[in-house]
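User: Sequence for Stage 0 sporulation protein A homolog below. Tokens please.
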Amino acid sequence: MITALLIDDEASIRNGLIKHIHWKQLGIDNITALDSAEKAIAFLEENHPDLIISDIRLPRMDGIQLAWLIREKNKNSHIIFISAYSDLEYYRNAIKLKVEDYIEKPINLEKMEETILKVTKKILSEDKKKKEEALVQDLMGLHHIHINTRVISNLIKGVWDEAVMEKLNREKSWIFPDDSFICMLLKPPSEANEVRQLDIVRKTEKFFRELRYLYTKRSNQTYIYLFAFTKEEFLTKVYSAFRRFRSEFTEGRINGYDVFISVSPKADNFREIPSVYMQAVCQLQQFFFLGYHHFVTVTSLEPKVLNMDRIRINDFRQSIIIKDQEQTIAISEELFCYMKMQIDTLPDIIKNIYFELNVFLLQKMENNFSMQEIGNPSNYSWIKFNSFETINDCHSYLLENIYAYYNREEEAFHDNQNVSKVVKFIRSNLTNSMLSIKDIADAAGLTPQYMTIIFKKRTGITVGQYLKNCRLSYSEELLRNTDLSLNEIAARSGYTDENYWSKVFRKHYDTTPSEYRKRLQS
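Assistant: Structure tokens for Stage 0 sporulation protein A homolog:
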């Protein structure tokens, strides 16, 4: 059963969403609506909803603050923000909070339902994954799985729990305080489910059967292996086992799956485990730059500060402003090549730069094109970065939007040229009462269907509406500046029936042609 919590201080929003969203059809079995952050906090003390939909600006506590509290109490809850405001800082906070989506008011119900459906599918997928993981543990007979996790968790913090270690050693004769240790982190492909990951684990075990080790799985889908050995074992077993393992890894795969492996330096005793573990973790971040198919050992102890040339970032922006596609792509490739070499930099720093470039590009798209043409880039750009695993993903997404931007620019340029032809022909043929959509399209060298689509897209009105507006505007001009009869003005404006023309004029100007002329004369 999937449960949801809706938080918004506006009753019209709450009631509207409760009434018009098809919750049951979207997989939500129970929905609770509250009007304040305070009530939400009290509710969350005893309840753990799967989905939380919250206004980002609430009285006395904004949605960002509330979301941080939610993350502390309900780490597994999925959050959707709704807001009447579009703010880059909100997007950045949303990324940190791993919010599912950011929907701007006025709320598009279709967009909201699409987002809710996406999240419910994700929740069901996560539940399925948990069940698969439980099944895997049963299949493996891992009666030590919990004690392994506890031991490794303690050791990477530098804690030697005598009671736990004694129990472990009674059963497995495993590790001792004076042993040396090596930490290995293994990252399987993100798309691999628990059963497939088990294949990778079993293949890995084949190389280390003669060694003493524990392993467990972190919440981020990374496996931690902790090897223990004496000096003699290192020379006779450990070194050769790792050589065989790395040799097998030359193709960058284990059991047919792409993997990334980070190996720490040797710790001379258990007190050094936290240090070598953190070095392996830092090294694991190189996956963002290198991707799969890599087996790395520690070369650097601390992430470096990225010395980024802001001038080139500004050059990128300027190339967008002046619409120089070749320069935009060249600068983006230059930035990519530079950042990909900075493998000691924290991935979040690189992601933030790509996010900045992408937001600027999408803002230009919003300014230049209708939302109908491009969707809602402010909503979907930041959420993408949450799922990107490598710098290649970030760069590909930026390039995708660059090409989309310039393709639309080129399309708009040609559309505007065609619209200009249509406008010019209409203005030159207002008096032709037989003028048809086909005549106008033929004169512009377009099909009627294509002409009507691009004209409406670029002007916001139909060709027929524009023709009528031009004729009525010309009628108003003749009434104002000539003494022509109403019948003659109607004819010159492209109308064969004076009475029909008068009705159209009255509907547009809220007065008849004769009354309009009288007001001018008075």
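The chain has a mean pLDDT of 81.
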